[in-house]
Write a structure and sequence with these properties.
InterPro entries: DNA-bd_HTH_TetR-type_CS, Homeodomain-like_sf, HTH-type_TetR-like_transc_reg, HTH_TetR, PsrA_TetR_C, Tet_transcr_reg_TetR-rel_C_sf. The chain is mainly alpha-helical and 250 residues long. Helices cover 74% and strands 0% of the residues. Helix 1 packs across helix 6, helix 4 runs parallel beside helix 7 and helix 5 packs antiparallel against helix 11. The termini are far apart. The relative contact order is 0.11.
Length: 250
C-alpha cells in the first residue's frame, strides 16, 4: 500500500475513534492511551498527525464542520437566488441553518448521531481553546444567517433577533447533546417515550421533526416588554410573521 494512502487511512482511523471516545467520555475523560489503543496505533502516530489532544479534537470537528459550513452557505445562496432580492421567510432560514445540521444525524458518513451528540455536549460547556475554534469556524456562516434574519424580520429590533438566535442555538445544542435528561425528568428513556428503540437515522429525523417547529415558535414569540423601552413600539413577532407571505411549517 502506498505510504500516502497508509497515512490517510491511519489519520481517518484515529479521527473515527477519537470522535466516538470524545462523545462518550468528554475531552477531559478521554485519554490519548484510550484513543491509541482502540485505533491500534502508537502515540507517535497521533503526535505525527495531530500534535496534541487539543489539536486532535479540533480536527475531529473540522472534518465535519467543513462540510456543514459549505452546505449551509450553499443552501442559503440557492434560497436567496430563488427569492430574487426579496427577503426569505423565517422558516426557510431556520430550515437551512438548523435543518442542514440535523441532516448529519441521518448520515453516518457525515458523523451521524455520534458527531451530533459530541457537538452538542461540547457546545454546552466548551473549553477556551474550542470556544475560539468554533468562533473562527462559524464566523462567516453566522454572519450570513444573521443578516438574512434581519432582512426577514425588518420590524423586529436587531438585538432581539440576536437574542433569539442565541436561544435557538442553545436549545439545539442541548437537544442534540443526548436524551439523558429525559430520564431525569420523566423516569423513562427515549425508547419508553417513543414506544420503541430508534436507529440513528430514525432518531435524527424524529428529533428534527420535534425541534424545528419549537425553534420557529420561539423565533415568532411576542417581543418582551421592558419598562425602559416602553416608549418604543413593540411589535409581536408572530404578527410580523403573519404580515409576510403564507409559509408552511418546516
Amino acid at each position: 500500500m502506498p505510504e500516502n494512502k497508509l497515512n490517510s487511512d491511519t489519520r481517518e482511523r484515529i479521527l473515527d475513534v477519537a470522535e466516538r471516545q470524545f462523545m462518550a467520555h468528554g475531552f477531559e475523560g478521554t485519554s490519548m492511551r484510550m484513543i491509541t489503543s482502540m485505533a491500534d496505533v502508537n502515540l507517535a502516530a497521533v503526535n505525527y498527525h495531530f500534535g496534541s489532544k487539543e489539536s486532535l479534537l479540533c480536527e475531529v470537528f473540522r472534518r465535519r464542520l467543513t462540510w456543514l459550513n459549505r452546505e449551509r452557505l450553499r443552501v442559503l445562496d440557492a434560497l436567496e437566488q430563488q427569492a430574487k432580492g426579496s427577503p426569505l421567510k423565517p422558516s426557510q432560514i431556520l430550515e437551512a441553518f438548523f435543518g442542514t445540521l440535523m441532516r448529519i444525524g441521518e448520515d453516518e458518513s457525515l458523523g451521524g448521531m455520534t458527531f451530533l451528540r459530541l457537538l452538542g455536549r461540547t457546545l454546552t460547556d466548551p473549553a477556551e481553546f474550542i470556544r475560539a475554534f468554533f468562533a473562527s469556524e462559524y464566523a462567516e456562516v453566522l454572519e450570513r444567517y444573521k443578516l438574512a434574519l434581519f432582512r426577514a424580520l425588518p420590524d423586529v429590533p436587531k438585538a432581539e433577533i440576536v437574542w433569539r438566535l442565541h436561544f435557538m442555538l442553545g436549545a439545539m445544542s442541548y437537544a442534540i447533546a443526548g436524551t439523558d435528561i429525559l430520564h431525569v425528568i420523566t423516569g423513562h428513556g427515549i425508547g419508553d417515550i417513543s414506544g420503541k428503540e430508534e436507529d440513528s437515522r430514525s432518531e435524527a429525523k424524529k428529533l428534527s421533526a420535534r425541534l424545528m417547529p419549537f425553534l420557529l415558535g420561539g423565533l415568532r414569540a411576542a417581543l418582551p416588554q421592558f419598562a425602559e423601552t416602553s416608549k418604543q413600539k413593540q411589535v409581536p413577532l408572530a404578527k410580523t410573521a403573519r404580515n409576510q407571505p403564507q409559509e408552511k411549517q418546516p
